[in-house]
Design brief:
About 75% of the residues lie in helices and about 0% in strands. It is an all-alpha fold and about 400 residues long. The chain has one domain: Growth Hormone, Chain: A. Strands 1-2 form a two-stranded antiparallel sheet. Mean pLDDT is about 80; it is low at about 1-10.
């Protein structure tokens, strides 16, 4: 292992479509498991009688993700130059994701084995969070400024495609054939990215030593506009979206929907438009700039969340609920693409994984806590109260985002 971190990638543009193939594979397989844990498993546990309060507690497992900035400098600093700096992380981590998924197979009634299931899921989230550091860093280095909109569109689109399978298809498989086939499907698909990563050859890069201390980790916030973007705008934007997203699965279960129906509508049908929305948002960023797409994403999120109110009030028309969920997921995708793109603008090439991870971690921490609080609060103020609060937060985050972009001129 080397003790140096690579900086600007040489020959990245010559890789052409290979860059985007790798990005798609990494983020698709990453979100197979994450989509299952955040959407599918929640529905399965609720169907098994798990309380909303317990589901809220389980959501806090996701706090591992925003804490990943603590070990992100290690991923940037140590790696095999011969095998490929980030490739030497991605191969074992991808294998770890497969192994932890397989470790879930003995617990065919997960609601009756919450202890070991939560422990294994926590390990999976740890592996996926670390894989995300390496994947993000490699993506930053492979994409030029003009490619970031499209690259992040593919990244977010891959995430949602993974959610379609992990949060939708896997639930249908579980409902029809049981726990083991569902987990084996996820493990098999997650393993497919191994071949793509192994076949990929990281281009040679110039090397710059960067110490992995806390002071160096926080230097990214010294850039103009970075602190207000990461600590104010993005958290509000994400909290509003996360709060609405968190209540969908339990609300559908409480409305009497079968797991198969939830998997098809919430996990598969509703996530499919998000893939197209993410790709479209990436193209629009190149044409319109960051600020306009930020406004578009916030406006769409507010309107789409309003469309979920009938579900919160117990009106569960299949057609209306499906349309509302499709709109919500598409709006969420647009918001994610523009946020990731601006975060990537702030990430410096000599500490790409650390910077990008640090920038996203604070907002993620708040959004995971918000999701946990939302499920708990739903027991007291109802799903409708939670949705109204999420709309207010999204609109506030959008307004502050526009002000930030005008003031700091991040429009490229």
């Amino acid at each position: 292992m080397t003790t140096t971190a690579p900086t600007v990638t040489r020959g990245a543009e010559s890789l052409g479509a290979e860059r985007f193939r790798l990005i798609t594979a990494l983020y698709f397989t990453q979100y197979l498991g994450v989509g299952f844990l955040t959407i599918g498993l929640v529905a399965i546990l609720r169907d098994g009688g798990t309380s909303l309060a317990t589901l809220g507690l389980i959501q806090t497992i996701g706090l591992i993700w925003p804490l990943k900035f603590l070990w992100a400098p290690l991923v940037d600093r140590f790696g095999s130059r011969r095998f490929g700096h980030y490739r030497s992380w991605l191969v074992p981590l991808q294998l770890g994701l497969v192994i932890t998924l397989l470790a879930l197979t003995p617990f065919v009634t997960p609601a009756d084995h919450l202890g070991p299931v939560i422990a294994i899921c926590s390990l999976f989230v740890l592996f996926s969070a670390t894989q995300d550091i390496a994947a993000d860093a490699l993506t930053v280095r492979l994409l030029g400024e003009g490619d970031r909109g499209l690259g992040n569109g593919i990244q977010v689109g891959g995430n949602y495609l993974g959610s379609v399978v992990g949060g939708g298809l896997a639930v249908v498989v579980y409902d029809q054939w049981g726990w083991v086939p569902a987990i084996l499907l996820l493990a098999l698909l997650t393993a497919t990215a191994l071949g793509v990563v192994i076949a990929f050859r990281e281009p040679e890069r110039e090397v710059l030593v960067r110490r992995a201390g806390l002071r160096e980790l926080l230097t990214v916030f010294g850039q103009p506009g970075c602190r207000s973007w990461v600590l104010v705008v993005v958290p509000l934007y994400y909290i509003g979206a996360a709060v609405g997203y968190a209540i969908v699965s339990p609300a559908l279960v409480d409305a009497g929907w079968s797991l198969t129906k939830i998997g098809i509508v919430s996990g598969a049908i509703a996530s499919a438009p998000a893939v197209l929305a993410a790709l479209g948002a990436g193209a629009l960023i190149t044409r319109w700039g960051r600020r306009r797409v930020l406004v578009l994403g916030g406006a769409l999120l507010a309107v789409a969340t309003l469309g979920l109110l009938p579900l919160a009030l117990g009106e569960t028309s299949t057609v209306w609920t499906t349309v509302a969920l499709c709109a919500f997921m598409a709006a969420y995708a647009v918001a994610n693409v523009v946020v990731y793109t601006i975060n990537m603008d702030f990430a410096r090439p000599d500490s790409a994984g650390t910077d990008f991870t640090t920038l996203t971690s604070f907002a993620l921490a708040i959004s995971f806590v918000a999701a946990a609080i939302a499920l708990t609060a739903a027991a007291w103020i109802g799903y409708e109260g939670v949705l109204v609060a999420s709309i207010v937060l999204v609109l506030l985050g959008t307004a502050l985002g526009v002000r930030h972009q005008r003031r700091h001129g991040v429009t490229a």
